[in-house]
Write a structure and sequence with these properties.
Blueprint (H helix, E strand, L loop, with lengths): L3 E4 L3 H10 L12 E4 L4 E8 L2 E9 L16 E3 L7 H9 L1 E6 L1 E5 L6 E6 L5 E11 L5 E11 L10 E3 L7 H5 L6 H7 L8 E5 L21
Length: 223
Amino acid sequence: MCGRFAQVIKYQDLKKMTEELKIKESSEQLELNYNVAPTNIVAAVVAKDDWRYLGFFRWGLIPSWSKKIPEQALINVRSESILEKPSFKTSFLRRRCLIPANGFYEWRKTDKQPFFIKAKGDNLLYLAGIYDAWYGPDGSYIPSLGIITTSANDFIQPLHERMPLLLNPSLYDTWLNPAAQNPQELQLLLTVPSEIELEMYPVSRRVNKPENNDADCLKPIAL
């Protein structure tokens, strides 16, 4: 699963991301969030026609047809059943996004020790997601997203059986193309093994509390 991640995207990271993903509309600075928790507002790369831009979404998908906001935030979407559930199918076919992250947190099953998992080096990870827009009966408007998860690879398996879907860079263009709507072709993207090399290290249990949101959350600790 993916229950917490870090989105600390500073100017140089943002500039590099804008160039790599061919983003045409962005911001000069994003809010720094070292401990992103469900229902927080996060940035994601989306596309309309051939126009890519950074949008801002509530983490916890609210399907457009919902009568109310779900009591439990739909933060994760299982890749294996994404085409089977009406909550996710239409968004998967028409509204896909990439969520930039410095890395994500996972808790070891045996002792609940938190770890931070990131790409080797200082590169950003891009978590595959879907999004939607919800209009409340009072006229409120809430764009929201969910992160797609898949079976953990051998590296993550000792911590948890699930992990966020990390697409290979060669698949970004197809993923962000709103005209790509063939269910079978899109489903294949969910099964391509990730080529991204990861590293992990233990972090303080301070990350257990969302109110702890500072650089210390990302610091490695000795066990």
